[in-house]
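User: structure tokens for this one?
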Amino acid sequence: MNTASEYSAVFKHAKRVSDNLLTVLVSKNPDKRAKLGLAIAKKMVKKAVLRNRIKRMVREAFRLRKQQLIGVEMVVLCRQKAGFASKKELSDSINKHFDSITKQ
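Assistant:
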């Protein structure tokens, strides 16, 4: 996702799926393409290294599941605890969210 209008459309029409680390906003995409948006706020995760790690992990999980997520737009938001989570905890959280989205 590139434009502010794409993000605002997802925020308006999205279903929320969340846990203590991440919140994922999901909406249908009329283009039948899977789209990912990341909103990892500096206010939530102070260190740039940690923000970038979260982004890399989410992008990789999305890339691996892109064929299963056809017709879905999603925005991933993080919570403050995400900055303190281990790689395993983050990976488990991301996988749990993406699994629940693919089942819908």
